[in-house]
Amino acid sequence: MHGSSSPLPIAVEARNVTLSLGTTEILKGIDLSIAQGESLAILGPSGSGKSSLMAILSGLERASGGEVRVAGIDYGPLDEDGLAWARRGRVGIVLQSFHLLPTMTALENVAVPLEIAGLADAFARAAAELEAVGLGHRLDHYPAQLSGGEQQRVAIARAVAPGPDIIFADEPTGNLDGGTSGTIVDLLFARHAANRTTLVIITHDPALAERCDRIIEIRDGRIVADRRP
Ligand SMILES: Nc1ncnc2c1ncn2[C@@H]1O[C@H](COP(=O)(O)OP(=O)(O)OP(=O)(O)O)[C@@H](O)[C@H]1O
């Protein structure tokens, strides 16, 4: 454990991160440190750069400039394969549009990435994760046979199954009705609490943001507010 005088270990560190696409500057110098075990909400208007920032911090996309370190790894020298390696097992990603493979059952969607990562008990672990999100009775269903909320629960099971240090969720409840979205959010916070997983959530929902340890707000590619609720 850390002593009272030592700072919390840092899970995510961004220094002067920029992103340009063509002549458009999307991120204009982001400085952000997220402590291990912290939950952080990212708020901001549509088009302000929230998803772009998350794509960079989660290793899905490379920054145009600046420095990014996640779970102790410097993303700077890494190419796309290197970033994929850096994400594996360390970073779980939940996107608004689920991104499940339509030709695989719920169980396969969760188990196959674990198998690729070399886990011997991939299918047993995947089944346990799906049980944990209340889908033990849907293991052999294909995504098209599942409701939106069920698909999002599969996506969460897939993201958390490798035991990542950090979970990034981009509007994980954006497409879901109120009751379903509450359940989905509870699942993310339960995992955060149980494992002290760092949790980074993009949301438009102020009530969800207030559940986090910290809220940042992005406008026009810059962090304009950083506070504790
Ligand atoms: N691949 C791309 N090519 C060109 N412009 C892009 C691309 N991706 C994002 N942008 C632009 O970058 C800006 C930031 O987009 P981003 O998706 O990060 O915003 P956001 O805050 O997540 O918005 P929303 O809340 O609507 O999801 C927008 O103006 C968007 O049009």
TrEMBL record:
UniProt-listed CDD domains: ABC_MJ0796_LolCDE_FtsE
The UniProt record lists the keyword S-adenosyl-L-methionine: no
GO cellular component, one term: plasma membrane
Keyword ATP-binding: yes
Molecular function GO labels: ATP binding; ATP hydrolysis activity; transmembrane transporter activity
PROSITE patterns: ABC_TRANSPORTER_1, ABC_TRANSPORTER_2
Alphabetized UniProt keyword annotations: ATP-binding, Nucleotide-binding, Transport
Stretches assigned to the ABC transporter domain: 12-229
Chain segments annotated as coiled-coil in the UniProt record: none
Protein's name according to its UniProt entry: Putative ABC transport system ATP-binding protein
Organism the protein comes from: Sphingobium jiangsuense
